[in-house]
Give the backbone structure.
Amino acid sequence: MSINLSLLPPTEKNKIELDKQASYAVWQLKQAKAGPELLLTEAEKIRNEDERRFFEQAVQKYKRIMSVA
C-alpha cells in the first residue's frame, strides 16, 4: 500500500517534517557533529506550542531509539 504524502493536510505534512528534523538533530548529537544546545535552538525556532511539544516528543523518541543520553 502506498500513500501519497502530498495529499496529506498541511498539519500532517508539518508533523512529518518536524519528526524528520528531530531525527536528524538527535543523529547529529549521536555523531558528535553538534552539542546538546542544538536541540534547544531548534525547539526555540518553533513558534507554535503544539508543534514544539510534538518536536520535543519526537526528540525523546529518537534519543531512546538511538541510545543517546
In short: Residues 10-30 form the longest helix (21 residues). Residues 9-65 form one domain. Residues 1 and 26 are 29 Å apart (CA to CA). The helical segments are 10-30, 37-44, 49-65.
